[in-house]
Specification:
InterPro entries: Flavodoxin/NO_synth, Flavoprotein-like_sf, Flavoprotein_WrbA-like, FMN_Rdtase-like_dom. The protein is an alpha/beta fold. The protein has one domain: Rossmann fold (3-Layer(aba) Sandwich). Helices cover about 45% and strands about 15% of the residues. It is built from nine helices and six strands, in the order βαβαααβααβαβαβα. Strands 1, 2, 3, 4, 5 and 6 form a six-stranded parallel sheet that branches. Helix 7 (about 130-145) links the parallel strand 4 and strand 5. Helix 1 (about 15-30) crosses helix 9. The longest helix is centred in the last third of the chain and has 23 residues, at about 180-200. It starts with 5 loop residues before the first strand and ends in a 7-residue tail after the last helix. The relative contact order is 0.19.
Length: about 210
Amino acid sequence: MPGTVNVAVIYYSSTGTIARIADAMATAATEAGAHVRLRKVRELAPQAAIDSNPAWAANADATKDLPEAEPDDMVWADAVIFGSPTRYGNVSAQLKQFIDTLGGLWAEGRLADKVYSGFTASSTAHGGQESTLLALYNTVHHFGGILVTPGYTDPSKFVDGNPYGTSHVSGQGDLPVGDQTLQATKVQAERVVRVTRALKEGGLTGGA
């Protein structure tokens, strides 16, 4: 039997696109044999801002019972898949805030030798998807993590075209997550689990 792999899917979503991808990522990782924790990061926006956007308010209500990410989730995980919408070509403030709480674990070397990957969404096709993932992956280098991206390792990746990680164009919220994005999610989650398992069985990953 293959060894146990712990995967934490940690994300921020305002209007729900990233939440939908995160849920699909967690499901795909589970189906690939991993133990999975799905966690949202803490919201920083004021309630008035959330209430001003019906989609944002609806997503906040739909995920109100989902546990918030804690540093312990990072310690537990053999692999971490981060998700964030693009914010001016960078990760959201909410996800960055969570990452900034991990300094103690980083100083102790407890974030190193884990597998990391990421996913994102933007309003337009050139709205910063690649730069957001690359910015996120800069953090992985500082962690001493092992970056596992989907690359062009599956024929479907030549269709969605993003080797950096699953990405979705949401328009103004009128372009829901569809089959192409869900297939990209499946490819990425399965690869993360497969590579993490191989590294862990070789004694190379730094789980809890």
